[in-house]
Amino acid sequence: MVLFAISIFGDSSRLSTIASAIVPVMACVYILLALAVTVLNLGLLPAVFGVIFANAFDFQSIFGGFAGSCVMLGIKRGLFSNEAGMGSAPNAAAAASVSHPVKQGLIQSLSVYIDTLLLCTCSAMLVMVFYVQDPAAATALNGIPLVQMAVNSCFGEMGIGFVTFAIWCFAFSSIIGNYFYAESNFRFITQSKTALFVFRVACLAIVFFGACNSFDLAWNLADIFMGFMAIINLVVIVILGKWAFKLLDDYSAQRKAGKDPVFVAESIPGLPPTECWHVAADELEPSTQGPISEFTDDVVEAVTTPVD
Are 150 and 91 in the same domain? Predict the structure, then answer.
């Protein structure tokens, strides 16, 4: 709470810098930790995959899938994993400096696979190895304690300490990141300092409320509000989807022509007004400074080349 308050009311640059440096390291170490546990228990892998397939295709799972309960739970937890379709990650992606928006869009698509297929698989392997080793203990635990005990089975108390610190880093950086998403959008709506102060106090109160209440309440509230975000975002995707495909066509055409794609809004006829990407071809002056000249030439060619 104190660190979050300092971040939103005070000089947050130092905390943000520390978090941005620690979190990637924690993620890499966490992956290595999961790989180490897997390698140390290679003999248990057949039993692990046996449990996975046995539970995936039993009658309870099949009928649960037909009823939609398993699918619904997977969708809700998938949103927490990678935020795909929720509309929050574009707030960070939009801050990237790229020559064409499709470049960053492709990177964001890749991040979904990294989150879900890599990091979540690491957690799954930790838990499943522990389950095969001690089914009774694993069944009695849930959430973070389950992951902690899974690491403890191989690395002892040091493993529990690392998982605790890593999860704290992930949680704190997530709170800070999502807050700045929210503040960026709030500042777009109003520049009132009083309103911004009230907004910050409200965010602080919500974090305090969540920290003092049960996990079930926090999960349920998060599910509800993330559902609202997904609904709004899906409507926007339907409205703007055709323009995304036009940008993808523009990107593909430039790539096929052997160019480094450069986007100019005026090159897409009928594109709704935007606040960026406005560099008209006739405004670019030729330069003899090597890379700068090549860049301007590429932009001019990108604008003047017709796109199917």
Answer: yes
Q: Are 268 and 254 in contact (CB under 8 A)?
A: no
Mean pLDDT over each residue of the chain, to the nearest integer: 78
Nearest-angstrom CA–CA distance, 108 and 119: 16
Same domain, 152 and 295: no
Q: Is the pLDDT of residue 292 over 70?
A: no
Q: What's the per-residue H, E or C state across 193-244?
A: HHHHHHHHHHHHHHHHHHHHCCHHHHHHHHHHHHHHHHHHHHHHHHHHHHHH
**d(Cα 144, Cα 8) in Å, to the nearest integer?**
27
Domain total for the chain? 2
Q: Cα(125)–Cα(129) distance, rounded to whole angstroms?
A: 6
Smallest Cα–Cα separation from 150: which of 27, 33, 47?
A: 33
DSSP state of 286: P
Residue from 289, 249, 34 nearest 150 by CA: 34
CA dihedral 42, 43, 45, 48 (to 10 degrees): -140
Asked, for residue 296, whether it belongs to a domain, the answer is: yes
* Spatial separation of the C-alpha atoms in residues 100 and 86, rounded to whole Å: 22
- pLDDT tens-digit map of 199-219: 999 999 988 888 888 878 888
pLDDT mean over 225-238: 87
The pLDDT score that the predictor gives to residue 60 is: 62
pLDDT band at 282 (very low <50, low <70, confident <90, very high): very low
Give the pLDDT of residue 195. 93
Backbone angles phi, psi at 52, to 5 degrees: -60, -50
- Contact between residue 37 and residue 31 where contact means Cβ atoms under 8 Å apart: no
Identify the domain containing residue 23 by its residue range: 2-212
Start-end of H helices in the chain: 2-9, 13-40, 45-56, 59-67, 69-82, 89-93, 101-113, 120-133, 135-140, 144-155, 157-189, 193-212, 215-256, 291-304
